[in-house]
UniProtKB/TrEMBL annotation:
UniProt record, GO biological process: ATP synthesis coupled electron transport
Protein localization: Cell membrane; Endomembrane system; Membrane
Recorded name of the encoding gene: nuoN
PANTHER family the UniProt entry points to: NADH DEHYDROGENASE
Keywords assigned: Cell membrane, Membrane, NAD, Quinone, Translocase, Transmembrane, Transmembrane helix, Transport, Ubiquinone
Sequence intervals crossing the membrane: 6-26, 38-55, 75-96, 108-125, 162-183, 209-232, 244-265, 277-296, 327-349, 374-397, 409-429, 450-472
EC code(s) of this entry: 7.1.1.-
Protein name, UniProt field: NADH-quinone oxidoreductase subunit N
Family: Belongs to the complex I subunit 2 family.
Chief location of this protein within or outside the cell: membrane
Keyword Repeat: no
Domain of life the protein comes from: Bacteria
A Pfam family that the UniProt record links to this protein: Proton_antipo_M
HAMAP family: NDH1_NuoN_1 (MF_00445)
Length: 487
């Protein structure tokens, strides 16, 4: 084994891991006063990890005897993960500074780096054990981040719920891993694929491997908050600090979807008929429940939680196709979804009363088109895009996954998914109606960090506006190259 070559292939994780350890030591010595410096240093570390993807780490092949894949698929997912993590770090100082009794501490960006390291391992996993190590590294940091506001009861409750249900999901996943290993004799994805192809005619082994497949996908469904393993999402999104909620809705979502795609295609490709049924059910259930359950919500963060469940369902439509076009559609969808979600949560961060405290009720958006017209316009763009209404770029995201499903012959799935998407459009349009047609509520106050966050909001709004269609040739080619790496 050439350790130097392996380290170069896994250079992004090496940079993130070493950076997190160094900044952790710096935080211990510097205390709370080092928070801002550690935050910007963490963003620089994420940028360095992204730059590392331009070398062998982005297309170099296998490392550590097949345990780790440095390919175009992983590189695509890591770019989205690093961008979302950096934005979640940048948006945090202003929020915690305004929230009484809880100042931001330098552990926050360090935990973000450790979580990003775990997510990198997830999307590059070539083995069930690598998968689990990356998943738990990401999850352990996420449990702490969810309860980061120690004096806030909702935050503590969110962290506890996330931990308990996350531990249950990890147990389910480990049980599935043990079944797969027991019936295939290997934990390497390619070895598992060979076993599924060879032993398909053996009824005993085939049944055992299918049971293992079901439990593995159940564990992964929790991580992507797909129905019926979505129950933690609304409570955790509402209770966690808003920058953490924005992080949960973006970066870990990309990592978990990427991991699910890699496991389905690379490890269990020969069992397409078995796992496709699971994915179709999860997709339709997530689309319908995410749309219906959001209708009665009065808290904007809970509504966006159900929106994320709804969007996961659309992404799974592309995976159900089981083709390179379907995987490319999934990655395109996640790229656009990250821009829409981060933009929406950046607007939510601007919702604060005269005392500077966060406001989360949808009613507080009333008449925002007259009190904060630019902010209302940006929020309207994000809502229309999430609803998939043309000519916003969110329409193209849905078009990509439904087109792949139709090409794969999954006409009922596409038809039901398109019909259910109209339900979700209702609550997105309700927010636009509240902002533009209701009587004005007390205006939101502007914060000191308005210029930076305003620039990020404008950037996200431009990305999901009709101008985003200019990126289709590059985005389509990149996502197809990522998909081809799995086939």
């Amino acid at each position: 084994m050439d350790y130097a070559a392996n380290l170069m292939l896994s250079l992004p994780e090496v940079i993130l891991g070493i950076g997190a350890v160094i900044l952790m030591m710096f935080s211990a010595w510097g205390g709370p006063g080092a928070t801002r410096a550690v935050s910007w240093a963490s963003v620089a570390v994420l940028f360095g990890a992204g730059v590392a993807l331009t070398g062998p780490a982005g297309h170099g092949g296998d490392a550590y005897l097949g345990l780790y894949h440095a390919d175009a698929f992983a590189a695509f997912a890591k770019v989205l993960i690093y961008i979302a993590t950096a934005v979640a770090i940048i948006m945090a100082p202003g929020f915690f500074q305004r929230t009484a009794g809880d100042n931001l501490r330098p552990e926050y960006p360090v935990l973000m780096l450790l979580s990003a390291t775990g997510m990198g391992l997830m999307v590059s996993a070539g083995d069930l054990l690598t998968l689990y190590v990356g998943l738990e590294l990401q999850s352990l940091a996420a449990y702490v981040l969810a309860s980061f506001m120690r004096r806030d009861q909702r935050s503590a409750e969110a962290g506890l719920k996330y931990f308990v249900l996350g531990a249950l999901a990890s147990g389910i996943l480990l049980y599935g891993v043990s079944l797969v290993y027991g019936f295939t004799g290997t934990t390497l994805f390619r070895g598992i694929a060979d076993a599924y192809a060879i032993d398909a005619a053996n009824p005993v082994k085939s049944l055992g491997m299918v049971f293992g497949l079901v439990f593995v996908f159940a564990g992964l469904a929790f991580k992507i908050s797909a129905v019926p393993f979505h129950m933690w999402t609304p409570d955790v999104y509402e209770g966690a600090p808003t920058p953490v909620t924005a992080f949960f809705a973006s970066a870990p979502k990309v990592a978990a979807i990427g991991l699910a795609v890699r496991v389905a295609v690379e490890a269990m490709g020969p069992a397409l008929g078995e796992w496709r049924q699971i994915v179709i059910f999860a997709a339709l259930a997530s689309i319908i429940l995410g749309a219906v359950a959001a209708i009665g919500q009065t808290n904007i963060k809970r509504l966006l939680a159900y929106s994320s469940i709804n969007n996961v369902g659309f992404a799974l439509v592309g995976l159900a196709a089981g083709t390179p076009e379907g995987v490319a559609g999934v990655m395109t969808y996640m790229a656009i979804y990250v821009a829409m979600t981060l933009g929406s949560f950046l607007v939510v961060l601007q919702m604060r009363d005269a005392d500077g405290q966060p406001v989360e009720s949808i009613a507080s958006l009333s008449g925002m088109s007259r009190t904060r017209p630019a902010l209302a316009a940006a929020m309207a763009i994000f809502m229309f895009s999430l609803a998939g209404i043309p000519p916003l770029f969110g329409f193209y995201a849905k078009f990509a996954v439904f087109s792949a499903a139709v090409q794969a012959g999954l006409f009922p799935l596409a038809a039901i998914g398109i019909a259910a998407s109209t339900i979700g459009a209702y609550y997105y349009l309700r927010i636009v109606k509240t902002m533009y047609f209701d009587d004005p509520a007390p205006a939101f106050v502007k914060g000191e960090e308005g210029a930076l966050q305003g620039g990020l909001i404008a950037l996200a709004a431009v990305a999901v506006s009709p101008l985003g269609y200019l990126a289709i040739p590059a985005l389509g080619a990149w996502s197809m190259a990522a998909a081809q790496a799995l086939f």
